[in-house]
Design a protein that fits this description.
598 residues; alpha/beta
Amino acid sequence: MKEAINGHTFHIPVMGIGFTIDTPVKVAKYGICSVMSMVDDLIVEKMREKYCAKFDFPFEAISTKIEDYRAKRFTAYFDVVDVIVKKSFEDLKNSIHETGTEVNRYMDLLPDISKVKKGFKELTARTSDTREIWTWLQDNLVLGTIDVNIMTKLDAAQFIKKEKQEAKFNDAHSALRGFANSKLQSGVVLSAGMNPRLYSYIGEFDDFFPDENGKVEKSIILKVSDYRSALIQGKFFAKKGLWVSEYRIESGLNCGGHAFASDGFMLGPILEEFRTDREGLISEIHGMLVTALEAKGRTVPKEPMDLKVTTQGGIGTSKEHEFLLDYYKVDKVGWASPFLLVPEVTNIDEPTRLMLRDAKEKDLYLSKTSPLGIPFNTLRGTSKSKILWENVAKGKPGSPCPKKYLVSNTEYTDIPICKSSIKYQKQKIEELDAQKAELTEDKYKKAYNTIVEKECICVGLVSGTLQNEELDIKIEGVGVSICPGPNTAYFSEIISMDKMVGHIYGKENVMTDPNRPNMFLKEIKIYIDYLRDKMEDYSKPIEGKDAKYVTDFKLNLNDGIEYYSNLIGELKISLEVSTEDFLTHLMKLKEELKSLQG
């Protein structure tokens, strides 16, 4: 593992809409980086009111009737979080004058290789002078970043009396502006694909541009599917004088939330390309950055700017964590779904958390419930799902669509609507009914369920947080949606933050399922199952572009299997896996893939 590390080697990615909405308040003072969602401005307004009351800050509500209220709500909430986190960090350092408990907890949570941890042990072995120790803490302790996440495609246009507003008032644009105008010194994670208009808008805010030392007040973190995507999008930003400070690579399917499947490309080979070509990426994009900054008359950094590569999705053991750091040279590893079982870190109602604790492999599945039409990892039997199917049984499918964050469909309307809405489903069902005579009962039922299974996740991914905080759910209702990754099946205990972090660093073991597969093998299996489902949806025989997709997908998967078979030596040493067991499992997966016939 990297010897130069000062702080933590993991971060906590965004989860849902509400589940990490105040995670930085809980973990940043311990040097742990985490990410908050920027989908719902209403929940941040409610959480701001709650925290202002808790810390006796003045609170003035930001009404939907004022101009640019969405951006202003995000700015106000982020500024409150920033104040709370910085104060708690100072209190932690000052605790050395009293019991020192919080400082000791900070150190205990760090990995043993941390230079800060080693330095603190050496210092306290040499002196008990609290003033000297406090001065050292001021110079060496690191605050976890308060990062934010924007789903770039959730950029719905805003309308006032059916009049379309300027693009800067679109959902993602206004969220970005809320972050840009805040006091946070952190990063914005851009996920869900490229949005050129939004990317260009970032260039209107000075905080994203570097000083002569390459420092930026606000950094760009880009979730990408592969090296090629990183290069294309990195160049796009560089031509505008903007630098991507971090490329965050996530497994396409072995993750929580929306699953953006690759065409059969596996995480290992993708990370291999970043490991091999990172310096080339920096060099090529830096040249474009310098040219753009000079053209804009802006400050040019003296040296190429820092670039981090991180990864996330499906990691479950300390050995896997270390392997990603040591072999692929990533800077940090994201741990998400397991933290849903840590009440100190994530914000979700107790009944749903207990469902997650008890979930097995069969309970976690890749669903079609998202109205975006993107596969969505979820849990069977959630309260939101139960309410949905109860309403369907009563002949009342669809949601009132109170928040409209996922509106994107214009089949029946000029102004986009959501596929989970009553308005959309009513018209889609009428269209289906007109064709009923031509369909078998099974085909009709399948088509009908495809329409009505879409959940209103805008409210479902928030309700659990609001219920946990005992806040008003008049708009959201009691139904809770949840979006854990498949890895959740192997964690079956509600635990403390200390224990979870200890698990990440190999000091504890909270995952006792002996049948849990290696993360790379699990990803291959998920992709094979995904391809099988896709093939079942295609017309038979599979021809044309569908046949080409299947052929290419299988070739890419086979290449991934071959890659891992060649990597077995490294895996044996680093992960302590049995060569025989790993290769046996790998060959079974290869045969399973081969058996898929178009």
